[in-house]
């Protein structure tokens, strides 16, 4: 596959020219999914997918034009509500929960004719950086099944690079799209907060969560982003500010673009990652970009801000799961208090309970000012600091992760070690800007390395164009397995 192509455009062309029927296409993907090599899916929607594919074929055979995303197979992270289709959040708590409405991002894709293959495995309630906390078992990295795919959107990343979906929609609260994209060698886009509706997405931390695409190429990410980035009155955080469509901005000259490199993120990283990042910088210099390093001491607060506010919001959001209204309920209990205690104790996994406990402590009356309020003030401080940086630079470039994909049980005895996997990604969520991870090389173990780009809020057009220009010079995606290999 060449970088100027995309799997979405290729499938669209094959369907339009009748070189393959939509039913044949979907059957190929479903056959690969049934092999279950990576545990990337929790629920497979075989009947719904085949019925939708038959409607696409009927439309094509009647001579009607099909939309760009019509007939394109997609997978969804299992926090995204799907009407009539199980949505578990990777948790025992919602093991049998079936929503009665669609999340807006899926409703848009469905109306555009995209075909749902199923719901992806993920860290429980999106809490994790390895996809090991899922009630349904860990996902395996298609590059090396002894390694994690990243989290929390690990199933989505594995489904794309493993050829089990043409693209996937996941969520990113502190790096949950970009870190799996880096570990699996694909593209992960976290849009600006407020650009893609959160309606129908079961929340972890409401002021951080943002839905976005996992794709094989930047062009695919652009196509999907332009489709789902719509104002939604059902989402109070949806921003009505005019959005910049990105597809028509791809391949614009970036000569003279100002790219800043934060010194703080170039220290303490894996040496092979730093070497790859330096090669990315050379590529941009050859394209005419102006590169400069800068220091931003304020980022030292980013991890503390994130884990204080995220745990506080998660504790509040997960308070609704009490065994009374919906979700897991034990068969035997003595009274209402016992019902609530046992439902939450048995329904949630260890990592979820850990973050609920931290968040509840942070929000307690004795500590709210010392932790929660201080973190909010520092978040605003960090936002202002980056606003000043963006007066000097158009793009910020940094590593996506401090390491490549690690093995299972990497942080079994030290949760903090796992939390530090987000050290390069959380800042973009805190200040609500768009960020993207794109593949930029491989380490000695042939594991993918990702580079990350930041842009000012709602400037996805600048971000995706810069990413596309690099991809056009250094295309690093390797399709590991599955149907995508056919194209």
Summarize the structure in words.
- The protein is of the alpha/beta class and 487 residues long.
- It has 15 helices and 11 strands.
- An 11-stranded mixed sheet has the order 1-3-2-4-6-5-10-11-9-7-8, sandwiched between helices.
- The chain is globular, with a radius of gyration of 21 Å.
Task: Name the features.
37% helix; 487 residues; 15 helices; single chain; alpha/beta
Topology:
Layout: H1 7-16, H2 22-34, E1 41-44, H3 46-61, E2 73-77, H4 104-111, E3 115-120, H5 154-161, E4 167-172, H6 178-184, E5 187-190, E6 210-215, H7 218-228, E7 258-262, H8 271-286, E8 290-294, H9 302-317, H10 336-347, H11 350-363, H12 368-392, E9 395-399, H13 415-419, H14 426-431, E10 435-442, E11 448-454, H15 460-473
Parallel strand pairs: 2-3, 2-4, 7-8, 7-9
Antiparallel strand pairs: 1-3, 4-6, 5-6, 5-10, 9-11, 10-11
Helix pairs in contact: 2-3, 7-15, 9-11, 9-12
Compact overview of the structure:
This protein has 15 helices and eleven strands.
């Amino acid at each position: 596959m060449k970088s100027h192509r995309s799997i979405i455009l290729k499938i669209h062309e094959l369907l339009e020219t009748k070189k393959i029927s939509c039913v044949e296409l979907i059957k190929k993907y479903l056959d690969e999914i049934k092999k279950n090599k990576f545990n990337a899916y929790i629920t497979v929607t075989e009947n719904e997918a085949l019925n939708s594919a038959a409607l696409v074929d009927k439309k094509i055979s009647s001579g009607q034009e099909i939309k760009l995303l019509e007939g394109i197979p997609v997978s969804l992270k299992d926090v995204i509500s799907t009407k009539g289709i199980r949505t578990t959040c990777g948790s025992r708590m919602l093991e049998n929960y079936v929503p009665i409405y669609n999340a807006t991002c899926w409703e848009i894709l469905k109306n555009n004719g995209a075909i749902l293959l199923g719901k992806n495995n993920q860290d429980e309630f999106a809490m994790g950086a390895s996809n090991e906390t899922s009630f349904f078992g860990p996902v395996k990295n298609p590059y090396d099944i002894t390694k994690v795919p990243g989290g929390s959107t690990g199933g989505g990343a594995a489904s794309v690079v493993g050829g089990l979906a043409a693209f996937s929609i996941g969520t990113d609260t502190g790096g949950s799209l970009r870190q799996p994209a880096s570990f699996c060698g694909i593209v992960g886009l976290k849009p600006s907060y407020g650009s893609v509706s959160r309606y129908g997405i079961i929340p972890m931390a409401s002021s951080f969560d943002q839905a976005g695409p996992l794709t094989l190429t930047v062009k695919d990410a652009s196509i999907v982003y332009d489709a789902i980035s719509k104002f939604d009155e059902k989402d109070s955080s949806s921003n009505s500010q005019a959005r910049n469509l990105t597809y028509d901005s791809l391949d614009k000259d970036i000569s003279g673009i100002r790219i800043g490199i934060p010194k703080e993120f170039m220290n303490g990283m894996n040496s092979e990652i730093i070497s790859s990042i330096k090669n990315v910088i050379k590529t941009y210099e050859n394209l005419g970009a102006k590169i400069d390093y800068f220091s931003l001491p304020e980022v030292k607060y980013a991890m503390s801000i994130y884990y204080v506010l995220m745990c506080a919001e998660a504790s509040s959001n997960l308070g609704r799961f009490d065994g009374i209204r919906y979700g897991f309920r034990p068969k035997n209990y003595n009274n209402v208090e016992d019902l609530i205690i046992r439902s939450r104790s048995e329904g949630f996994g260890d990592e979820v309970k850990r973050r609920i406990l931290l968040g509840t402590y942070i929000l307690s009356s004795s500590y709210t000012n010392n932790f929660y309020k201080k973190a909010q003030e520092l978040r605003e401080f960090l936002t202002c600091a980056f606003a000043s940086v963006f007066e000097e630079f158009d793009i910020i470039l940094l590593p996506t992760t401090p390491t490549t994909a690690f093995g299972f049980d990497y942080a079994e005895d030290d949760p903090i070690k796992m939390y530090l996997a987000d050290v390069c990604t959380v800042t973009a969520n805190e200040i609500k800007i768009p960020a993207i991870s794109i593949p930029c090389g491989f380490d000695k173990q042939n594991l993918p390395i990702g580079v990350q780009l930041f842009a000012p809020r709602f400037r996805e057009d600048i971000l995706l164009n810069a990413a596309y220009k690099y991809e056009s010079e250094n295309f690093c995606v390797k399709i590991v397995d599955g149907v995508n290999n056919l194209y």
